[in-house]
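Folds vary. Our protein:
___
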Amino acid sequence: MMDATSARAQTLIRSYDGPPMRIMEVCGTHTHEIFRLGLRNLLPPSVRLVSGPGCPVCVTPATYIDEAVWLALQKKAILCTFGDLVRVPGSKMSLAQARSVGADVRMTYSPLDAVAIAAAEPGREVVFLSVGFETTTPAECLAVLQAEERGVGNFSLLTANRTMPRAYDALAGSADAFLYPGHVCAITGTAVCEALTKKNISGVVAGFTAGELLVALATILTRCREGRAFFENCYPRVVTSQGNAAAQALVEKIMAPCDAEWRGLGRIAGSGLQLRPQYAQRDAHVRFAVPAMPAAGKTGCRCGEVLQGRREPPDCPLFGKACTPLHPVGACMVSSEGACAAHYQYGGMAREQ
């Protein structure tokens, strides 16, 4: 049964009669939950939801997969990774395909699991594929500290960590307002999003329940009438202004900002994280002198445009044809948080196949 706040938010959304609005779900979980809950059906025709780069697997370039494959096949390292990354295509093969020709690729639930594997197999190099935003980075930093404290010398990270603030700048103009990711803001706090209003970038922090998403969408449609940039925290039960100070301090100790390549967005200055010089031997790029990988050739995949909100997944000529969850061409179809996977699962394609 819908509570009074959610009912009022739904009424505000249905009755919206303002100017056309493009709202970007920066978080892949938001994209899937909005689809799953049927919230898109509540929106008037003038309001359009577009997906952004809120899935860390989706924004990781193919060259990173090539680096991981090189480590597994050329250096015989044990690769530990979260499951979503295994089937993401590289320029020549995915990690799953590399495993079929002898690569030792293991799915883990935590980077700490990789430290345990390294401790148990001291004769092998163990590399954890460190892909993620502010939410998962603290755990990867903790793994580095644990490896240091336990004297586990054969553990390292292949980093592809990303941070969101510079991405918001890069996406300015892609939407009229952002649905900011609640779990990222739980770590960073709201200061970054509040400061974006000075750059005329609007948005709200949203939770993940039906009621929280309804309130966030209604808040955007109400505040946009004011004619000026705005920010509101619609997830106060989890997100605070200061964020998680302990997690921030841990990341600051272990990692430093760097420029980073984002699939679809290109190179964004200061948007990545790399291990600080004192932890260089925990950095697989340094430890193994990983060579630069050539850019992947074109496949016809439109993931880059989807991640910028410039194209809907069904507009890609490969969507649901050459590219499906069983046979993905692009990362947005592989990841459980990817926009293409959401459109495929909830847009009727899965039933039609």
Q: What stands out?
A: The radius of gyration is 21 Å. The domain at 1-291 is CATH 3.40.50.11740 (Rossmann fold). The longest helix spans residues 137-150. The longest strand covers residues 266-275.
